[in-house]
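Dear Dr. V.,

Thank you for agreeing to look over these. As mentioned in my earlier message, I'm a first-year student in the group and I'm still getting used to reading structure tokens, so any feedback on how I've presented them would be very welcome. I ran two proteins. I've put each sequence directly above its structure. The first is here:
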Amino acid sequence: MSSKASQTPLTNEQIVAQYKEMKQQQQAIITKLSEIESDASEYSLVISAIENLEPSRKCFRMVGGVLVERTVGEVLPSVKANRDGIKDVVKKLEEQLQQQTKELTNYATKYNIKFQPSS
């Protein structure tokens, strides 16, 4: 096949469909980012609640759907590690969101997409 076949101009419907798909991808990233930020906040609350407790104090933690008894000294490092891992994921999702937003803006500019104000 020639390269001309792959460069056929898109119809208005195809342009709109592609734009809507890109917008949905952006919204999915925003939703996931919100969920993960909420998880990070919960981890931070747990950390602030137990970090000043005696390390030998008994505490309970849910592991794989099972409630297990541990000590604060055993649980605190893993909870902090989990929170830090979540923060890394948040950072990556924020980068993806920036990239997706940039692509969406470029696409809208390229195809001269105009937005009508909602009533």
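The second protein is here, in the same arrangement:
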Amino acid sequence: MNVDFTHLLKDHNLSLTAVRLAVLQALHDHPHSDANTIFAAVQQRIPTATLQAVYNNLNALTEAAIIQEIKPKGRVSLYETRVGDNHHHIVCRTCGHIEDTDCKGLAPCLSPASTHGYAIDQAEVIFWGVCPSCQESSGQNTASNTHTGDNHEKCR
């Protein structure tokens, strides 16, 4: 599905470039992607696009809060277009698949022991575990977990 990102870019005073639009479309189609995956998708649309152009656009879009950068420990940065809400991520330790999970409360959904005087408005949380497909393939119990989508295809 194609989404019109023109108004979004104009609202953030960003120029409408073919590479920028292709980056947004790639992220819309493939959330939680790394720069190389986004670059491959952009190159399918624009064969002359460079990896540096993709990185430049990822940085500009992140700074404008149009996309979000996710930094799971020990992994490359991932990007998504879902911003402005209070959601977190669940990462499978085995295959690396990522799912969004909504917070069960108001932002920030965690309360620190001390705010040190900060006006805290966001908490960044990454949950780690083993997805149902990986549990199934290793014989682990999946009864207490939920996983939506085509989990066998998503797991690497």
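From my reading of the second output: The mean pLDDT is 84. Residues 51-63 form the longest helix (13 residues). Does that match how you would interpret it?

Kind regards,
E.
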